[in-house]
């Protein structure tokens, strides 16, 4: 190889090495860059996940449970506050029965104490006026109340109203607390309520909680009329709770607990739970105001003795009306006598309202006031006539 050829070969080798070096540099740089990128990516991944975990998990772990806990505590606190507010005004009512009026089975035997019944009540006035149920105080010979702190005091009956099943009794002296009557017309189904009373007569100021299950319920009585406009609740009401308050979360009395239904069908034995009923506070306010001011509630009076007509009686007696009342006797000097009602008349409507199964005669009458003038639809000898009557006032017994 001459010098010229050797020089040419040497420069070719140098060029190849340069090219090869450049290739290695590019490839190596890529590999190194990828390795560095991979290393950095691996170092960054936990940080990214942690950051994302903070964004996603924080509401679940911190915000949501705190929110649920806040609602629970607030609701529980409202119940506690309402009970603290009303409970001192709740009393146990002890009724020593008059054995001359409650039947032979309840008569006092020699050496025995007089039989007693008990219920609950709530103080509504600083003068010592206490609202309870009529059926708690009926047939009494003596009344006594036990306050929430255990102190006892004699009570006297101010007045009662059979048709609302309400009564007012009075205790002299200072009162431990006064409950406020709320607006029962503002109640809503599902609203939380609390019942307070002396369950079974022994467990004074028992507290149970529930909701308003229904409004404007009708509850039949054994006296031919229905308690109307009742509040239905699933707050547990037991014997001894009668006369105690139904309370809203504002600590206002929205009803007076009156009855509980356990079974609706004697034949099938169907059992019901959570069916309690209370007289609305607005009715309580109207009735108690009259009792406190005059000792009784002014109710309209027609002045007839009657028999309720239903389809079964109508079929058996061959009567010309399926629903109504059959007049048996007209009292002299009463509104009925002045209107010209006679025995054997059948009254089918009062003031434009038909007497039917769900609207008994007494309830239609109680919609009016003494002094009101209304038309009576009457069947007499198979013919319908209309009589105008001006209602009197029910005599006080």
Structure, described:
The chain is an alpha+beta fold. The protein has 3 domains: 87-170, Beta Barrel (Thrombin, subunit H); 184-293, Beta Barrel (Thrombin, subunit H); 300-393, PDZ domain (Pdz3 Domain), CATH 2.30.42. Helices cover 30% and strands 35% of the residues. It has 6 helices and 22 strands. Mean pLDDT is 80; it is low at 2-7, 14-73 and 103-111.
List the helices and strands and how they pair.
Layout: H1 3-86, E1 90-97, E2 116-123, E3 129-132, H2 134-137, E4 140-146, E5 152-161, E6 166-170, E7 192-199, E8 203-220, E9 226-233, E10 245-248, E11 253-260, E12 263-265, E13 270-271, E14 276-280, H3 281-294, E15 300-301, E16 304-309, H4 311-317, E17 324-330, H5 335-339, E18 346-350, E19 353-354, H6 361-366, E20 373-380, E21 383-390, E22 392-393
Antiparallel strand pairs: 1-2, 1-4, 2-3, 3-6, 4-5, 5-6, 7-8, 7-10, 8-9, 9-14, 10-11, 11-14, 12-13, 15-22, 16-17, 17-18, 18-19, 18-20, 20-21
What is the tally of helical segments?
A: 6
Count structural domains: 3
Structural class: alpha+beta
Radius of gyration: 41 Å
> Quaternary status of these chains?
single chain
Order of adjacent strands in the largest pleated sheet: 1-2-3-6-5-4
Regarding CATH, which class of the largest domain? Mainly Beta
Largest sheet: 6 strands, antiparallel, barrel
* Mean model confidence by pLDDT: 80
Spatial gap, N to C terminus: 152 Å
> What is the N-to-C succession of helices and strands?
HEEEHEEEEEEEEEEEHEEHEHEEHEEE
Task: Spell out the CATH superfamily of the largest domain.
Answer: Trypsin-like serine proteases
* Helix coverage percent: 25-40%
Enter the CATH topology name of the largest domain. Thrombin, subunit H
Shape: globular
Report the uncertain regions.
2-7, 14-73, 103-111
- Tally of strands: 22
């Amino acid at each position: 190889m001459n010098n010229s050829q050797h020089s040419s070969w040497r420069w070719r080798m140098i060029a190849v090495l340069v090219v090869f070096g450049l290739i290695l540099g590019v490839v190596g740089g890529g590999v190194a860059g990828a390795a560095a990128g991979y290393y950095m990516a691996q170092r960054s991944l936990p940080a990214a996940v942690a950051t994302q975990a903070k964004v996603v998990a924080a509401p679940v772990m911190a915000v949501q449970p705190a929110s649920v806990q806040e609602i629970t505590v607030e609701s529980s606190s409202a119940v506690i506050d309402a009970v603290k507010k009303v409970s001192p005004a709740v009393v146990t009512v002890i009724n020593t029965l008059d054995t001359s009026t409650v039947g032979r089975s309840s008569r006092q035997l020699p050496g025995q104490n007089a039989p007693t019944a008990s219920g609950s009540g709530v103080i509504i006035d600083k003068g010592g006026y206490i609202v309870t149920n009529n059926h708690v105080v009926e047939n009494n010979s003596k009344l006594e109340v036990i306050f929430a702190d255990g102190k006892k005091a004699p009570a006297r009956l101010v007045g009662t109203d059979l048709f609302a099943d309400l009564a007012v009794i009075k205790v002299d002296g200072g009162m431990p607390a006064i409950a406020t009557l709320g607006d029962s017309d503002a109640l809503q189904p599902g609203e939380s309520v609390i019942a307070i009373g002396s369950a079974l007569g022994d467990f004074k100021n028992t507290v149970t909680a529930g909701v308003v299950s229904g409004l404007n319920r009708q509850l039949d009585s054994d006296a031919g009329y229905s308690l109307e406009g009742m509040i239905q609740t699933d707050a547990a009401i037991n014997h001894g709770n009668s006369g105690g308050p139904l309370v809203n979360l504002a600590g206002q009395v929205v009803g007076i607990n009156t009855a509980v239904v356990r079974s609706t069908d004697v034949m099938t034995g169907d059992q019901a739970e959570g069916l309690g009923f209370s007289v609305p506070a607005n009715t309580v306010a109207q009735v108690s105001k009259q009792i406190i001011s005059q000792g009784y509630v002014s109710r309209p009076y027609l002045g007839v003795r009657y028999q309720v007509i239903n389809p079964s009686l109508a079929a058996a007696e061959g009567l010309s009306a399926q629903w109504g009342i059959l007049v048996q006797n007209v009292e002299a000097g009463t509104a009925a006598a002045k209107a010209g009602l006679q025995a054997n008349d059948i009254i089918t409507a009062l003031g434009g309202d038909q007497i039917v199964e769900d609207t008994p005669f007494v309830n239609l009458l109680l919609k009016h006031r003494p002094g009101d003038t209304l038309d009576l639809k009457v069947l007499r000898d198979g013919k319908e006539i209309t009589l105008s009557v001006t209602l009197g006032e029910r005599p006080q017994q």
